Every structure is written in structure tokens, then in C-alpha cells.
UniProtKB/TrEMBL annotation:
GO biological process: double-strand break repair via homologous recombination; mitotic cytokinesis; regulation of cytokinesis
Segments forming domain ZFYVE26-like TPR repeats: 207-329
InterPro entries attached to this UniProt entry: TPR_ZFYVE26 (IPR057946), ZFYVE26 (IPR028730)
GO cellular component: centrosome; lysosomal membrane; midbody
Residues spanning the signal sequence: none
GO MF, one example: phosphatidylinositol-3-phosphate binding
Protein name stated in the entry: ZFY26 protein
């Protein structure tokens, strides 16, 4: 055993006694107010407590060590661990406030020590001021997400079920799940779009991929009007690329067999590019509609497109459309 392991085992027992920890803290501070000489033992103690899942003792010790970055990380665990719904997370929001408090205190300490040659507290976890500010922004956004989804669950508009409870403290895939959840769980797409848009922007996530996932979910829920609402929000967001709306529609047409004919036509009519409309009609086996858009194109391109539709009609034994194409050609 290392000296630090012996030191730890001598002080901590599974039945945690708060008084014992405070006696230790007073002793350490009396011998060395800066705690620097105890650094190796304190870090080893934290690792031991984490390994044993004694998180409440760990958090107390981190606060005593003034290790604010690690204390903030422990608060993240207290916020997320074991929660099964956003209603539960709504009741744990005090941990989000504590994360912010730790990070703000850390920023103040960094700015105070920036004029000195060497920053004190060498055993404490360090982080750049820019990263700390980014984390504070994440906490603020998570607060908004928590309040919004808590309200949705309470009012009964929440649609999605599943064991995973995504938060902004996870990886990019989890953050994308948060953006989807926020858009889908409001009473309509527009209600949660603003928060979801900020999540996509702040973390530079693949927006079209997220919008397409939402559109596919709306097809499953048979909310075709909401898909059009989603496209309106995307177009009005001001950062959509030219074909983003079309791509969102194309990506949800894999489920076209489940979409009623009138709703399917409305979605395809909403597309900007004629080429994309033709692609959509072909995907949905609407060859006559594909022909009607094809003949409106510039002559040489129209010939190529009609020839393609003619070939598809022949392959699918659609003699009527094949005859129309042949006559036009």
C-alpha cells in the first residue's frame, strides 16, 4: 500500500462521520494553511472516495480543498445521477446553482492570482477562463432546458418515452438528443425551437441532422402540419443553407408509405428546388408528378429528366406514364 492509502484507510470508514472529517480538516489547516504539503494525500483521498462512490464526503472534501472545478464536476453528478424524468431534474436544480457558484469563485481566484508569477494551489484542477465561461453558459442553458421540459411533463404534452434522460453535460450525441426532445415535447414545434436552436448554435452541432430526426419523429406521430411548422422555423432562423429545408423533407420521406397522399403532396410542394421535388416524387413512386415537374425545366435538362422517368416507368410497368413520356420525347 502507498503511504496515501494507509493515510486514507486510517481516517475514513464506511460509516462516514462528519465530525471526523472536520477534525482532520482543522488539523491539516493548522499545520499548513495553504494545504500544499498535503496535496498528494488529498488528491489520493479524493480518488479513493470516488472509487468507493462516497460522493457526499468527496464533495465536502473538495470544498475544504477549495478545488472548485472538481467540486463543480461532483455537483454535475448529483444533478444527473439516477434521475428518470425531467420532473425529477426540476427538483434538483439547486445543484445547477452550486455548479455556477463554484465556477464563479474559481474565476475570481484565477483573476486574483493572474498577476503573480506562479499560481498557488498546484494540486487543484485548473481550467482556462474561456472554458469556465463556456461551462457557466452550459449550466444556464441546462436550467432553461430543465424548466421547459419539466413544464412539458407536468402539463402532459410530453410525447417521448425512453430510459435515457439526455442533458447538456453529455457528449454531442446526447446534446443533439436534448435539442430533439425540446422541439418535440412542447405543445408545438415553435414553442421549444428557440431553446433547441441555441443548443445547436452554442455547441456547433449538425443542425440538419437534428431537424431530420425531429421530422422523422413527427411522421411517426402523424403530425404532418408540424413538419411544415419546423421548416418555417428553420427558414426563419436566418442560418439555414439553401437546401436545408428540402433535405429535411427528403430525409423523412423514407416513411412515405405511412404519409397520407394529400399530406405527402403538401410536403413535396413546400420544397424549393424542382430537382429535389422530382427526386422526392421518384422516391415516393409518384412518377406522373415527377414527369409534370420535369417538363417545366430548361429543354436539354427536361429531356434528361423525362428519359429518366420513362425508364423508371418501364421498370415498374407503369404503361400510362411511360406512354406520356414517350409522346413528349
Amino acid at each position: 500500500e502507498s503511504p496515501s492509502e494507509v493515510f486514507i484507510e486510517g481516517i475514513f470508514i464506511p460509516s462516514y462521520e462528519s465530525g471526523k472529517l472536520h477534525m482532520l480538516e482543522n488539523l491539516l489547516e493548522t499545520i499548513d494553511p495553504g494545504l500544499e504539503s498535503w496535496g498528494v494525500y488529498l488528491i489520493a483521498t479524493c480518488k479513493y472516495l470516488q472509487r468507493k462512490s462516497y460522493y457526499h464526503i468527496l464533495y465536502e472534501l473538495q470544498q475544504f480543498m477549495k478545488d472548485h472545478v472538481r467540486a463543480a464536476m461532483t455537483c454535475i453528478r448529483f444533478f444527473t445521477h439516477g434521475a428518470k424524468s425531467y420532473t425529477e431534474l426540476g427538483g434538483k436544480q439547486t445543484w445547477l446553482l452550486k455548479i455556477k457558484d463554484h465556477l464563479k469563485v474559481y474565476l475570481q481566484e484565477v483573476s486574483r492570482s493572474s498577476g503573480r508569477k506562479k499560481m498557488a494551489f498546484t494540486f487543484r484542477k485548473k481550467m482556462s477562463a474561456a472554458d469556465v465561461s463556456r461551462h457557466i453558459n452550459t449550466v444556464d442553458l441546462q436550467m432553461e432546458v430543465t424548466k421547459f421540459l419539466h413544464r412539458c411533463e407536468s402539463s402532459g404534452t410530453s410525447q417521448m418515452t425512453g430510459s435515457s434522460l439526455p442533458t447538456l453535460f453529455g457528449n454531442n450525441n446526447m446534446k443533439m438528443d436534448v435539442a430533439c426532445k425540446v422541439m418535440l415535447e412542447g405543445k408545438n414545434i415553435e414553442e421549444g425551437f428557440g431553446i433547441a436552436f441555441r443548443v445547436l448554435q452554442d455547441f456547433q452541432l449538425e443542425a440538419t441532422e437534428v431537424y431530420s430526426k425531429v421530422a422523422k419523429q413527427l411522421v411517426k406521430q402523424q403530425k404532418y402540419g408540424e413538419i411544415r411548422q419546423l421548416l418555417k422555423c428553420v427558414n426563419e432562423s436566418g442560418v439555414a443553407a439553401k437546401n436545408d429545408g428540402d433535405n429535411i423533407i427528403l430525409n423523412c420521406l423514407n416513411e412515405f408509405k405511412n404519409i397520407p397522399a394529400e399530406d405527402l403532396d403538401n410536403l413535396i410542394q413546400d420544397m424549393d428546388s424542382d430537382e429535389n421535388k422530382i427526386q422526392a416524387y421518384v422516391m415516393c413512386n409518384k412518377l406522373r408528378s415527377a414527369y409534370l415537374v420535369s417538363v417545366r425545366q430548361e429543354k436539354s435538362r427536361a429531356v434528361q429528366l423525362v428519359q429518366h422517368v420513362q425508364q423508371l416507368a418501364e421498370n415498374s410497368r407503369d404503361d400510362v406514364v411511360k406512354a406520356i413520356c414517350t409522346q413528349w420525347l
